[in-house]
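Worked example

This section walks through a single chain of length 282. The input is the sequence exactly as stored; nothing has been trimmed or padded.
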Amino acid sequence: MPHNSQTATAERPELHPVKRAQAPIRTLIVDDEPFARQRLRELCADEPGVEVVGECEHGNEAVRQIAALRPDLVLLDVQMRGVNGFDVLERLTEHAPLIVFVTAYEEYASDAFDVDAVDYLVKPFDRARFRQAIERVRQRMADESGRELRSGIATAVRDAMQEASSGAASPVKRIVADKDDRIVFIDPADIDCIEANRNYICIRVAKENYRLRCTMQQAEQMLDRSRFLRIHRSIIINTLKIKEMERWFHGEYVITLFNGQRFTSGRAYRQQIQTHLRNGIK
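Given that input, the structure is written out below as tokens.
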């Protein structure tokens, strides 16, 4: 019988107790300085399980290579000729790799974490600091479902936007949310409505729904209040997407959007809806 048990294990390798080798971290290096790229290649070569799949010296090339190679990790310089590191991320439409920024400029650190960079390496840095960044990448990649990773990105963006809103006179120009394994940059003008969903908000854009981990109060702070109106504790609408409003009982309204969605306003929001109507939709 022991012989048969061993044979069954050999025929079905997925049941074998020996752990599978972890897939390499496929890494793209993006830096406009040849010496910097060489240094990163050497550091990657010394890290077990890190495979350099390509190099780029400017941002436009990086966008193309990320789409073509679909790397797990991009070691990304911030300041490059033409298109900077943040522009690269903004142009990504399909594949969203993990990002470790590598730069000589400390002042971009807060912006880096707006897009949930795994780490931010300020030149010059030593081997130990680089190894720490790679370990953080491994921890991110260890998330089997990937959903918590995307939620983490949304959380980081939420916190950054909340902080920015508290000291800024104008609303955010974009909202960064997630859908499946994609990171999506949303123009607030395209939003039809926002609905609360437990610890998240659901952002409706045409037929698509995107998710962001934040509260409704934090969502309000991101938006232009002359265009967005909270009509219920769990609903914010883009007033330019309203098709019609029908007066209902006790000062409530039934609001229909151009996309066909209908909402009934909350009684507690009657005053601000009426104020908005008096001011008019400009």
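What to look for: The domain at 150-279 is CATH 2.40.50.1020 (OB fold (Dihydrolipoamide Acetyltransferase, E2P)).
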